[in-house]
Specification:
The complex is a heterodimer of chains A (about 160) and B (about 325).
Chain A: H1 6-17, E1 26-30, H2 33-44, E2 52-54, H3 63-66, E3 84-92, H4 96-106, E4 113-121, E5 133-137, E6 146-152, E7 158-164
Parallel strand pairs in A: 1-2, 1-3, 3-4, 4-5
Antiparallel strand pairs in A: 6-7
Helix pairs in contact in A: 1-2
Chain B: H1 23-36, E1 54-59, H2 65-76, E2 80-85, H3 97-106, E3 111-116, H4 121-131, E4 138-144, H5 150-164, E5 171-175, H6 182-193, E6 198-202, E7 218-220, H7 223-227, E8 232-235, H8 251-258, H9 262-265, E9 273-275, H10 288-291, H11 298-317
Parallel strand pairs in B: 1-2, 1-3, 3-4, 5-6, 5-8, 6-7, 8-9
Helix pairs in contact in B: 1-5, 1-11, 2-11, 5-6, 5-11
Chain lengths: ~160, ~325
């Protein structure tokens, strides 16, 4: 399958967001791929508010069937109340991760506005969720048993790959 | 051998003791606890993991701290918590332990947190639930007789790992009333499983179980000898309420020989940490200068205890 170059996508995402940036916009990346993308956007856009990360594992709706595995600490270093937040993920799929992340986010405060930014929309939504900033939408939705993953090498280069579940 | 705490897939189903629990599961609990420590810093100190579940704290023996921290942990996970102080309830009217449990099951319990003065009571409950086809209900041992207090052992391990990182380099001394202490048994089991090379117990002969060396520990009767070069000092409470007969001359005498003072602590490593499961008897097993001093990590233990109990409960409810 022909996947786009994730390094080009991240630069396109920078330009999509740039016109909408406010001085106190807060970037929050969802572990782990989304945190890498958020880190890149944060640096390229010269954002001065500290970068946040979320691991929405505790808010997922499949906890009862999948159980609990090791997760990372969420870290929101600024008060998000009354601010614009851009939630960043690598791949948008069912929308369930975004739902879990939104729920977690609101336990930290009430943002003025939340937007979603993703590198790739792979289709297959199961919830009414859409990304305001999306660098690439796959022409055909991927099959359910295919994982689309972002990886980051030691030099910080991104690449997208598919694995069969 | 079948481990009654694990289900067929080898996952934790009940937490009854740390003795015989594989190192991988101990580490998994400590790892899962870590992100829970952050919840206390949020505006909304709640996670939805146990939403809609009913946790029954069934305490056949009095305890304020343990019950409260279990209650906070369950509430931070959004569970409904029901506290039963059975010490002052139906058992006084003649109801048996298993009848009490059956009644609570009929009220829709999903998890029992049990403290009982009789060693093995939580096992009896877990067995009963299995034999009656109610495997989905979990039991957490919150202290049974002189046998075990696994979540206290776990929170001590969490505290040690937080400050010392690597268990395989440590010398740990457990000081005090080992004989009556379920905490000491859980601590020794966990320290050994996690690979601590040197575990010492420091106590008078009258406060040691007869076969204590068989637990893989080195015994010291002289506190000054035992504290030399240790990284971690784990104090135990002198359990006045469990003392029968003349095991000690007096608490003043005990403090002189086995109380942790600044002067004795100087024999340990300069960066040694001091743990105490609480409640402390100041001036009996620990001097106030030490309890409030820079080596003490006694209050962080309490905070970590909530995260560790959240980890245990969310693991049990998610299997």
């Amino acid at each position: 399958m022909n996947l786009p170059d994730a390094n080009l996508l991240r630069d396109q995402l920078v330009e999509l967001i740039r016109p909408h940036l406010k001085p106190d916009t807060v970037f929050i990346g969802i572990h782990s791929g989304g945190a890498w993308v958020a880190e890149y956007l944060h640096q390229k856009l010269g954002v001065t508010t500290p970068l946040g990360t979320l691991d929405a594992a505790f808010y997922r709706d499949d906890y009862a069937s999948r159980g609990l595995h090791k997760s990372r600490k969420s870290h929101i270093p600024v008060d998000i109340a009354g601010r614009d937040v851009i939630l960043v993920d690598d791949v948008l799929y069912s929308g369930r991760t975004t739902r879990a992340a939104l729920n977690e986010l609101f336990d930290y405060g009430r943002p003025a506005r939340v937007d979603l930014a993703v590198l790739v929309d792979r289709g297959g939504r199961q919830l009414p969720i859409a990304a305001r900033f999306c660098a690439h939408t796959l022409a055909e939705p991927l099959a359910d048993d295919v994982h689309l993953r972002l990886t980051r090498d030691e030099q910080g280069h991104f690449s997208l790959g598919v694995e069969n579940a | 051998m079948h481990n009654p705490q694990l289900n067929r897939k080898g996952e934790l189903q009940h937490l009854l003791t740390l003795d015989g629990l594989p190192a991988a599961i101990l580490k998994q609990i400590l790892d899962i606890a870590e992100p829970f420590t952050e919840v206390a810093e949020r505006e909304v100190k709640k996670l939805p993991l146990l939403r809609g579940k009913s946790v029954f704290n069934v305490f056949f023996e009095n305890s304020t701290r343990t019950r409260t921290t279990f209650e906070i942990a369950a509430k931070r996970l959004s569970a409904d918590v029901i506290n039963l102080n059975v010490a002052t309830s139906s058992t006084n009217k003649g109801e048996t332990l298993l009848d009490t449990i059956d009644n609570l099951c009929a009220m829709g319990a999903d998890m029992f947190v049990v403290r009982h003065a009789t060693s093995g009571a939580p096992y009896l409950i877990a067995d009963h639930l299995r034999n009656t086809g109610r495997e989905h209900i979990s039991v957490v041992n919150a202290g049974d007789g002189r046998h075990a207090h696994p979540t206290q052992g776990l929170l001590d391990m969490y505290t040690i790992r937080h400050y010392k990182k690597d268990f395989s380099q440590l010398t740990v001394a457990i000081v005090g009333d080992v004989l009556h202490s379920r905490v000491a048994r859980s601590e020794i089991a966990a320290l050994a499983t996690l690979g601590v090379p040197e575990i010492r117990v420091i106590a008078p002969k009258t406060l040691l179980p007869t076969n204590v060396e068989r637990m893989g520990v080195h015994v010291y009767h002289d506190m000054r000898e035992g504290l030399k070069g240790v990284d971690v000092v784990m104090m135990l409470r002198l359990q006045n309420e469990r003392m029968q007969g003349a095991l000690l001359p007096s608490s003043q005498e005990y403090f002189k020989c086995y109380g942790l003072t600044q002067e004795k602590l100087e024999l340990a490593k300069p960066d040694a940490i001091v743990l105490h499961p609480g409640p402390m008897n100041r001036g009996v097993e620990i001097d106030s200068a030490v309890a409030d001093g820079k080596h003490a990590v006694i209050l962080p233990q309490v905070t970590f205890g909530i995260a560790v109990r959240m980890a245990v409960m969310s693991m049990l409810a998610g299997q």
